[in-house]
Design a protein that fits this description.
Elements: H1 5-22, H2 41-52, H3 71-84, H4 92-105, H5 108-119, E1 125-128, E2 144-148, E3 151-158, E4 169-175, E5 186-192, E6 198-203, E7 212-223, E8 227-228, H6 234-247, H7 252-269, H8 276-304, H9 311-335, H10 352-359, H11 370-381
Parallel strand pairs: 1-4
Antiparallel strand pairs: 2-3, 3-7, 4-5, 5-8, 6-7
Length: about 400
């Protein structure tokens, strides 16, 4: 692949100029949460300008409201918004996981209907893949879909469903042909959630939050129009989603740098910034984030060249997840005793530093455990013999955390 540095620099300058000309001062340093950004008049106006400028879903083809940017260019855009301190609003899983499946496998009518609803924030998606007995072995899912006239009726259970309590749509895998072989007879359905047989039960985590949920589905109905890629063809569609999920995190370093700066500020505040040991830890963390950033750019370059990342994806996953865990410990140490005190609140909550520490613990598990990633690297990159103790078929996509 040939990288055109002049075009990359031109894009960087375009983003900077656009932000200068269109910035809404009230939204500077506003961070996007699980419900999306706060619904203020200023944020509504900012989102309107972003959509008009085609900076939301900018990797989409121009005909659908994007800019046709590749993964590497998308990383440049995210860097510039982060540097300026303005939120680059994301449409979550609708943008990152559902839209690629619709663009690749949807028919023209489906694209015209579903993509604008993702772009303007009307539809907010959660992922209905993992089940109590089907996580790593996703093809073992048991949720059933029965065709009834022009509808699919779905019944089953999903677990580890991130953000389900904030979603109004689920992209759901269900078995529509129980007689077909394991990886066949599965359909990929976009299912409306409100008042449609969904019982969402948040799972309280040790952080005090409830980002994950278990979801019970009792005869939820979706039009056949909402089946992407055709009935019984969901495994192929799911692989498109999972491929984009494995590629995800290409801008994760932006959040890491934000947290690094918060810890630097705390070190200054509590008088530890001149401690040589603290400075060494901060320097280590900054260097590690840059390594994660360059690894992500390497992955983005592969994707931009139309190549499917191999063991590189596992290397990247190990890098950021193990860094995050160690950084959480470091943040607690630098913040000191205050990191052990929970803020006064009627609910079970954590302070910022405790949140960094506790929240990082799951990173080496979801998305494929660190042990599985090491096996992948050992077998596929280093040519080592397969691990005889591994129970799961790692050649299949891993649907981790939804």
């Amino acid at each position: 692949m040939t990288v055109d540095l002049a075009l990359d620099e031109q894009l960087r300058q375009e983003v900077r100029s656009w932000i200068t000309d269109n910035a809404v001062a009230e939204v500077k340093h506003v961070r996007q949460g699980p419900r999306g950004t706060e619904r203020s008049e200023a944020m509504t106006e900012w989102e309107r300008r972003l959509i008009e400028g085609r900076w939301i879903c900018s990797h989409w083809p121009e005909e659908y409201g994007g800019r046709g940017l590749d993964s590497f260019q998308n990383g440049i855009v995210s860097d510039e918004f982060s540097r300026a301190g303005f939120p680059r609003v994301s449409r979550g899983m609708g943008e990152s996981l559902v839209s690629p499946a619709i663009i690749v496998h949807g028919d023209p009518d489906q694209k015209r209907y579903f993509l604008p609803r993702i772009l303007d924030g009307t539809d907010r998606y959660c992922q209905g893949f993992s089940e109590p007995g089907a996580g790593s072995d996703l093809a073992g899912l048991q949720t059933r879909g029965v065709v009834d006239g022009e509808e699919v009726i779905i019944t089953g259970q999903k677990v580890w469903t991130s953000g389900a309590q904030f979603a109004n749509m689920m992209f759901c895998l269900c078995r529509t042909d129980p007689e077909a072989p394991k990886h066949r007879g599965i359909s990929y359905v976009l299912v409306p959630m409100p008042e449609n047989g969904f019982d969402v039960r948040p799972l309280r985590q040790m952080t005090g939050g409830a980002g994950f949920n278990e979801v019970f589905i009792d005869a939820a109905r979706a039009p056949l129009f909402n089946v992407i890629g055709g009935l019984h063809n969901g495994w192929r569609v799911a692989n498109t989603t999972l491929g984009n999920e494995r590629r995800g995190g290409g801008t994760r370093h932006v959040g890491f740098l934000h947290n690094w700066q918060r810890v630097v500020d705390k070190a200054r505040e509590n008088g530890k910034i001149d401690d040589p040991n603290v400075r060494q830890q901060l320097a280590w963390a900054y260097t590690k984030v840059q390594i994660i950033r360059y690894q992500a750019e390497r992955m983005n370059a592969l994707a931009a060249a139309g190549l499917e990342p191999g063991p590189e994806a596992s290397v990247g996953k190990m890098l950021w997840s193990e860094y995050a865990r160690r950084f959480g410990e470091m943040a607690m140490d630098i913040a000191g005793m205050e990191s052990l005190v929970r803020p006064e609140h009627e609910d079970y909550r954590q302070n910022e530093w405790m949140g960094m520490f506790l929240g990082s613990r799951s990173g080496t598990i979801w998305g494929g455990t660190a042990e599985v990633q090491r096996n992948i690297v050992g077998e596929r990159a280093l040519g080592l013999p397969k691990d005889p103790s591994a129970e799961n078929d790692r050649s299949q996509p891993f649907s981790p955390n939804r």
